[in-house]
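Researcher: Quick test of sequence recovery. Tokens follow.
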């Protein structure tokens, strides 16, 4: 799936602009930088690409979630609903802002189940975070309808789906805000990095100030440090080198998606040979960024059996039901309430009482769906050798 496969001269040329000025910092140094503002340019290009007015670059996708929630005013006493199939970062960020994560089931889209979402809303719910897992859309229309009924904002965790869309709107652009990651394995990468997009100017202003110690970033006599502060912040600033690399990668995004779509179709044809196989419910086939191919067998036993043969033939798939980074029952540290804090925060309150308990078996529908599901990452470059290997492995698996 990832941008690292197409890393090359364009990224080097962009980064050289930064080395030529010697200005590594996104703000200030006006005299030395000769008009070069790579992070700002990356933000503008990313916002335009997504069809929104504002983008805020930060240091990671996890930071993007944190900064977005800070800007939305989320904190202790609040509950934030997300899905039980996501990367740990989604709920780490919820804890880090002081709120408590609540987990919904996924459905055949492998994303948030809007019916279960509505059941989990209560008077403490302040935010809903659907995650567009593996390059394709959650049921945004239904999720937004539920959210609107309860007047709760929606933040789209789009870390795994830049370039994907639903009915003509880019994923990440449909909620109050959307967050992205440019970590080493994402569709486009800046090594480490993240972005938040929004149409809401006040929300963007909160993000801009919070991510940089409260600086207001307005041009003023006296420069940086001559400004006052509206609230306390933190440091999640992106470097100029990351902005430069991001510009080169963003320019390649549509081509990455196009090539992944071609390769996904080839892989899908190979997988279609498995008796009884079905494919992930895609709400918008055209809008899929095609980073992953997810397919299901009729039973969990068959999925395990098929994957055993695929593994023996050098083409093992990811079995997310057993994955310790992406699926709720496998997050042993969450279930145990393990924290590095001596006080036990965030699982325990300052008075030592347990704030929350996560039981392992609360998401039976998700376990049933993922238990039947196998997943391949789709490469940008699919060599003939690898393709043949997958086809042979499928033939072997189809025979059992
Ligand atoms: C990768 C990822 C993140 C975190 O991004 P980082 O840049 O690695 O911090 C958040 N959410 C999801 C769904 C992800 O896949």
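Model:
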């Amino acid at each position: 799936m990832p941008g690292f496969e197409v890393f090359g001269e364009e990224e080097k040329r962009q980064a050289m602009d930064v080395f030529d000025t010697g200005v590594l910092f996104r703000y200030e140094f006006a005299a030395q930088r000769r008009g070069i503002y790579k992070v700002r340019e990356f933000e503008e290009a990313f916002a335009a690409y997504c069809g929104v007015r504002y983008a805020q670059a930060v240091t990671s996708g996890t930071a993007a979630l944190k900064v977005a929630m800070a800007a939305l005013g989320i904190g202790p006493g609040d509950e934030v609903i997300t899905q039980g199939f996501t990367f740990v970062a989604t709920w780490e960020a919820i804890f880090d802002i002081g709120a408590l994560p609540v987990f919904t089931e996924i459905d055949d889209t492998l994303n948030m189940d809007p019916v279960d979402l509505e059941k989990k809303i209560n008077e403490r719910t302040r935010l809903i975070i659907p995650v567009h897992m593996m390059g394709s859309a959650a049921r945004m229309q239904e999720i937004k309808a539920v959210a609107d009924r309860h007047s709760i904002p929606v933040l789209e965790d789009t870390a795994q789906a830049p370039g994907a869309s639903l009915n003509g709107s880019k994923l990440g652009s449909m909620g109050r805000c959307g967050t992205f990651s440019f970590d080493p394995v994402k569709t486009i990468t800046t090594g480490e990095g993240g972005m938040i997009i929004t149409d809401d100017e006040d929300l963007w202003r909160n993000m801009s100030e919070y991510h940089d110690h409260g600086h207001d970033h307005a041009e003023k006599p006296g420069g940086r440090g001559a400004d006052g502060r509206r609230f306390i912040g933190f440091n999640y600033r992106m470097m100029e080198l990351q902005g430069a690399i991001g510009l080169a990668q963003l320019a390649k995004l549509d081509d990455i998606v196009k090539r992944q779509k071609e390769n996904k179709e080839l892989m899908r044809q190979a997988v279609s040979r498995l008796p009884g196989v079905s494919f992930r419910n895609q709400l918008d086939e055209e809008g899929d960024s095609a980073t992953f191919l997810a397919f299901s067998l009729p039973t969990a036993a068959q999925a395990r059996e098929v994957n055993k043969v695929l593994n023996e033939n050098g083409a093992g798939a990811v079995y997310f039901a057993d994955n310790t980074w992406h699926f709720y029952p496998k997050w042993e540290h969450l279930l145990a309430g393990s924290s590095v804090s001596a006080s036990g925060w965030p699982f325990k309150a300052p008075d030592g009482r347990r704030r929350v308990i996560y039981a392992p078996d609360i998401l039976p529908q998700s376990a049933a769906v993922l238990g039947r599901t196998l997943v391949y990452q789709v490469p940008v470059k699919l060599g003939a050798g690898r393709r043949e290997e997958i086809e042979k492995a499928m033939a072997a698996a189809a025979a059992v």
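The chain has two domains: 3-252, 255-398.
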